[in-house]
Amino acid sequence: MSPLDEMKSVPDVSSPETEDVLELRSLRVSDSHPAGARRLVDDVSLRVGQGEILGIVGESGCGKSMTAMAIMGLLPKGCAITSGSILLGGRNISALQPSEYNRIRGKEIGMVFQDPMSSLDPTQRVGLQVADSLRVHTDTKSRAARVRVVETLESVGLPEPAKVADSYPHQLSGGMRQRVMVAMAILCGPRLLICDEPTTALDVTVQKQVLDLLRGIRDSFGTSIVLITHDFGVMARVADRVAVMYAGQLVEEAPMGDFYRSRAHPYSDALLRAVPTLHGTRSARLWAIPGTPPTPAAHREGCAFADRCVNVRADCLNAVPALAKGPSPHHRLRCLHPVEPADGASTSSAEQGVGQ
Amino acid sequence: MRLGQACVVLLIVSVLTFLLVRMLPGGPVQALLGTHNTPGAAAALEQKLGLDKPLAVQFLTWIGSLLRADLGFSYVRQSSVTSLIAASLPNSLLLGVMAFVMALLVAIPLGVYQALHPNSWSDFAATTAAFVLYSMPIFFIGALAILYLSVYHPVFPPGGVGPAGVTDLSWATRLYYAFMPATVLALVQLAVWSRYVRSSMLDTLAKDYVRTSRAQGLSMGQTVRRHGLRNASVPVIQLIGLSLPALIGGVVVVESVFNYPGMGYLLWQAAIQYDFPVILGVTVIAGLAVVLGTLLADLLHLMVDPRVRDGIG
Amino acid sequence: MESGSPQDDGLLVDPVRAEVIHVPTEGESGPAALLPESVEPERSPSPMAVALRHPAARVGLVVIAALVVFSYIGPLIWSASPNDTDLLVILQPPSSVHPFGTDDVGRDVLARMMVGGQVSLNIGVAAAALGCAIGVVYGAISGFAGGRLDSVMMRFVDGMLAIPVLVLLIVLAAAFRPNQLLLILVISLTSWLIPARLIRAGTLSMKSQDFIKASQAMGSTSTRTLRRHVLPNSVGIIVVNATFQVADAILLVAYLSFLGLGIPPPTATWGGIMSTGISYINEQAWWLIYFPGLAILLAVVAFNYLGDTVRDAYDVTAR
């Protein structure tokens, strides 16, 4: 089954009527660089509906992880939200006190990190670590917590969950550890799950299992998921909607099907073409985007992608393009000179590429 | 894991002390007897050391007597070295343990606080203080302590383990008399150990599992207690194990400053009086103490880090 | 292993001096973390040149220069004799006649402080230099030999490091009544261990590089490799470590003379003056405590600080 076929079975949950679990309003995150605060996340607005999986994609350093950490309220030292707001179920959480934020993390928002090898404390038994969120958010007694932890470990597909709970992280495989991380994130039944490159550190076969697990969690619990990745293959397998970030800005956003059919930003197009294909006979060569991603800047004049763009014109350099309505409904685009709707050859090659 | 290395240390210490006795000016019998060199005593000692036998046999004889806790006889003190050490060792242990605990009780919170507020003014001040304290000669701190807390303001006794002439000392008296020397000793160790704790905790706080714990909803304080302390303690335990030789050196100086009758004082007096049986006995015990301390550190490491138990890392 | 113990991954860190000592484990010949990753024939800048360019390091140098002037030039200006006793002026606090006061037999403390400075600096610098020389030879032999000899030699170093230095010195000082030369020898016997480790690490990392393998294949000798490649690349870290060794040696000399096991009287030493001060502490002879105490502290801090700043500067330039 190709990813596109799979996608058709998913109801269109991105319709505006659905209650938003998460909404970012013109979020801006800056660091405290000596030469002036640089915008790491620049004016990002996004919505994630109930039970929706939103994929955020972009090269490393584009601000996608920074957006995730901003939602978690765990920005690194020196970085801060300078404007905009984060709404969780309609409630503005971006201005919460640290102690109030502690009550949200792990309870209403769960997070799965990239590297399951280093994300677990090597000196402690897995079960105890997983139980921590129950301990701080509820007054569950330790015996009841243990039962709940073992149940959750079982629900994420870990065989012999009691044995896993008594193991130390180094005694588990990478895939098992990532399942433990997922169990940890969903233990308190959060409304929102943020997954930052959850499969990057895993083997290809294990990647697929973990993605299916995430999808299963959405299907059974109606959990909304923000999936951050640089890998379109991962994105295509699970995401309902795609948001492309570049240089801290949202440059294009569309439901998955629309995105494949009518992506319009030259960067999105180039990213998709850069996906290697396993049986790429029709598209003989792999596209590489020339140049390197820009470093964060305090201020931009003109489109951030201009110096790498094949469609660049003089007016691209004058002003930052606004995020405007794109070629299809629910499609937003930040580009003055979008690419034509993709031709058949490149689309199918991209689809093949992402289907692996 | 370092059991082998511990044996190497013991071997080096025993070989060195053994060879030293043989190399002493005037020969071993003369050196060990000192002014008590009578023909009878010399003959008896020669017999005991087995000086007419090959060096290897002499060495084994020496090891054998060590294993029987027979460290020889001090002709200067007219007493067996074992009994002299037995009288001093408890005093030194009290001093050492007290200093050790005091240093840790300050070093851990201080280092953790610095790691949580790196590059702040308080961090900078503590770093500078540690640097100066580390370079401070112990006897200078000791002398200042006596000058201000015993001479100018008689708060603490200037030395000893208890009032002169009193033999049956209560614990309270012992602690009171040991307090000032132990504090001086602790200050120097504290300078080093707080740096260990700071850098180790900084490393630990940058780990991914700390971020995971925060994402679970634990506060920074909860995360430090739940994950930080345990993980940061792994390298700290090892480094503290490595700083035991320096601690023992400090004990010698502090006991000399405060005329505190422990092993260090015993060594010092013996060195001044060329009382070689005692010097060698104390040296062997010091080597043993380092080895035991290192083994203890390894054991602790084993308890803290499950990966070591499984033979990983 | 993430939370690597300092032993296991071959890194020993002294956080007070933030000294990173890479100790390759057996069989490992990876790049030494402490060495500038320069590729031949590029040479590391001279550490002293770096130090002079670095303003913070100048502070250490200035203090050391002041101590040198005080100890060696001072006696030429201050004509009081360090050993003349005057029982009419015993234990006098600082005055215009005796700016640093007098000791228990009426000797001028200022003059004695100057002589004590000479003793400290002579022994400190000479012992550190000798210790480094021994360490270089030992470490190079160990590194070039490799195999079982290397492992035995390094186990010996580990064993020696576990012996309390001061206890060892007391034993040696009691056995051989010391003079300056003997003290230098004895202290250097305890200060060669770390330089030996550093040079061995440098040797191992050099040995693994292709151009060395090539030159050795073409018949270049180990001595030549050492002189041409290992030493120039390790000179910075050795000089930095040597300044730390000077600081330690000054402290050890002070401890030994304080215990009455250093240079025998009547030669003045800082530790000896302090010892007198403690004997007469009930007479509140504070000047016999403060002057030697501060002098030792200043000297040790200066050398430690110099080493620290040069190492920092060196790390930056090496990067």
Tell me the structural class of chain A. Answer: alpha/beta
Q: Could you give me the name of the CATH homologous superfamily of the domain at 20-258 in chain A?
A: P-loop containing nucleotide triphosphate hydrolases
- Can you count the helices of chain C? 11
Number of strands of chain A: 12
What does this structure look like?
The complex is a heterotrimer of chains A (356), B (313) and C (319). In chain A, strand 1 and strand 2 (39-49) form a beta hairpin. Residues 1-17, 280-284 and 344-356 of chain A have low confidence and may be disordered. Chain A has 12 helices and 12 strands. The N and C termini of chain A lie close together (11 Å). Chain A has a domain at 20-258: Rossmann fold. Chain A has helices spanning 3-8, 64-72, 98-104, 126-137, 142-155, 161-165, 174-186, 204-221, 232-238, 256-262, 266-273, 344-355; strands spanning 20-30, 39-49, 53-57, 80-88, 91-92, 109-112, 192-196, 224-229, 241-246, 249-255, 324-325, 332-333. In chain A, helix 4 (126-137) packs across helix 5 and helix 5 (142-155) crosses helix 7. Chain B is mainly alpha-helical. Chain B has 2 domains: 2-80, no CATH class; 89-312, MetI-like (MetI-like fold), CATH 1.10.3720. Chain B is built from 14 helices and 2 strands, in the order ααααββαααααααααα. In chain B, strands 1-2 form a two-stranded antiparallel sheet. In chain B, a hairpin with a 4-residue loop joins strand 1 (73-74) and strand 2. Chain C is elongated and about 75 Å long. In chain C, a hairpin with a 4-residue loop joins strand 1 and strand 2 (19-22). Chain C has a two-stranded antiparallel sheet with strand order 1-2. The longest helix of chain C has 37 residues, at 109-145. Residues 1-15 and 18-42 of chain C have low confidence and may be disordered. In chain C, helix 1 crosses helix 11, helix 3 packs antiparallel against helix 4 and helix 9 runs parallel beside helix 10 (270-279). With 319 residues, chain C is mostly helical. Chain C has 2 domains: 1-42, no CATH class; 47-318, MetI-like fold. The A-B interface holds A 72, 74, 98-99, 102-107, 110-111, 113, 115, 118-124, 129, 132-133, 136-137, 168, 170-171, 181, 184-185 and B 207-209, 211-220, 222, 226-227, 230-231, 234, 304-307, 310, 312.
